[in-house]
Amino acid sequence: MSKPTTKPISAKSAAPSPRSRVKRVPDRGHYDRDTVHAVLDAGYVCHVAFCKDNQAIVIPTAYWREGDYLYIHGSTKSRMAMILAQGTPACVAVTLLDGLVLARSAFHHSMNYRSVVAFGHFEQLSDDHKMAALEAFTERLAPGRWAEIRGPNRQEFKATMVLRMPLNEASAKIRRGPPKDDAEDMAIPAWAGVLPFKTGFATPEPDPQLAAGTPLPGYLRALANR
Predict the structure, then answer these.
(1) By C-alpha distance, which of 41, 42, 48, 47 is closest to 65?
(2) pLDDT band at 117, cuts 50/70/90?
(3) Less CB within 10 Å around the terminal CB: N or C of the chain?
(4) DSSP-H helix ranges across 28-172
C-alpha cells in the first residue's frame, strides 16, 4: 500500500484548496477535521463521482472512515473499482438530511442538512492491509459483529477490492436553524418553522431460517434503541 503524498486536514478554518472552498453561502462551510469526520461518521452511504470516456458517472456505495481516509470496497470486476484503482480523479459526497425548513415565502423554503464533499484519488489497498480494513468496515456497521461471523475465505478475499482516499481536500457544509424570511413577509399567516427529519434503525427482523432461540446480540439491540 503506497503512502499518501498529501497532508491531512488541518485544524484551521481555511479551505484546504480553492476547489473545496464553499462558494454558495460560504458561512455554512467548515474545514476542520472534527466537523468533517463527525458528518462522515454519522452516515453510511456516499456517492462517488468520476469520469470515464467523457461520461460523468455517479455511484452510490457504502463507506467508512479510518483516521484521515475514506474507504470503499467492491468487486475486483466492478467498473467503479477498476477505474478508481487506476488513480482516476474522484469526488465523494455524503449528505444527511436533518429537516425541512418551511418559510413564509416559496423562495426561502430550504432544508437543514450536514454534508461533506471530498476531492482526491483513491488507492488500492494491498492484501496485507485488506483484511483489517474489511474488519473495520464490519465493525463500523455493527460493533462486535466480526467476532461472531465467518470472515472472507480465500476466493471471497481475492474477489474483493478495498480502496481509500485521503481526506486532505474535504469540506463540510451545514445548515441549521429556522427559515430566513424577508421582513415584508413576516405578516403572512402561514405556519413557518422546521419539520425535523430523523433516521435510525428499527426493530431487527430475524432471518426466517434463524435457529429458534438464537438471542439478539446486545450490539444490535443497542443500535436499534439508539
Answers:
(1) 41
(2) very high
(3) C
(4) 33-41, 79-85, 127-141, 154-158
